Amino acid sequence: MPFQEADLGVIYQNDPSLKPADVKSLQDWAHLQPHLPKITELQAVLFLQSCYYSNEMAKTSIDNYFTVKTMCPDIFGNRNPDNSQLHTAVNIMVISVLPKQTPDEYSVIFIKLINSDPDLYNYPLQIRCFDMLTLLTLHREGPKKGMIILVDMKGIVFGHLLKLSVVVMKKFFYYLQEAMPIRLKSLEFFNIVPFMDKILALMKPFMKKELLDSLYLHTTMESLYSRVPKDLLPQDYGGSCESLGVLHEKFKALLRDNQEFFTFEDSQVVDESLRPGKPKNINEVFGVDGTFKKLEVD
């Protein structure tokens, strides 16, 4: 079906701090960068709003965004929902931007495995699913005042830890903090697993202080409800949102029905041969050459 973008007129009307002249300036700048793909007005809006209306910060974010996506096709490329590997990844997890917002008007990205078989788990593809759903939501609904990533760890076993790649984790956290056009307010986990210390040992080296300070591990549901009100959550947790089963079917349908959008995303790549000055390479961006080649688990 044809992809329906968010209404720019409504976005401008609802956000007086977002100036059309600033958006045009940012879009014009992007169009003058020979190595970057052409960006839409809505994309310029998303980057400018996520960078709190700083044009210079948005320029850096745009360059980081397309550079990372081009350099990491194993994580961000081939966004065709009909891809067999992606199809498997979609079937083992639910990702949903919950319909209700927090009292601070933040949107909640809810993530949970629904199949606990670690043999089916593919870390880069789970990141790709998260990114596809989040970017699709932003393009359908417009920018968000803030976003919370909420992960239910129930069903995660030690075998999943062994499937993690430190290199992929480093790339993901760079993308999440330096490139993705969202205002990330917190990263929250509940139903904590006994080996959470090992997961944190992998994550923390790649997290900036701001994100570390907004990392929450909820050992009780009461603790979770103090941050994310119970009413926002799916029925499975006593909330008023639809059940996990319904959310999962909607997640699969959203990806399946918006192939046109994902084809457009796949087409937006960087041409390093045209970058002004010295072309970038993956080692320069991530510093992964000869480092973190193997995950060691005690």
From TrEMBL:
InterPro entries: CRAL-TRIO_dom, CRAL-TRIO_dom_sf, CRAL/TRIO_N_dom_sf
Highest taxon in the source lineage: Eukaryota
PROSITE patterns for the chain: CRAL_TRIO
Domain CRAL-TRIO, first and last residues per copy: 143-245
Entry's Gene Ontology cellular component terms: membrane
SUPFAM superfamilies listed in its UniProt record: CRAL/TRIO domain (SSF52087), CRAL/TRIO N-terminal domain (SSF46938)
GO molecular function: phosphatidylinositol bisphosphate binding
Protein name per Swiss-Prot or TrEMBL: CRAL-TRIO domain-containing protein
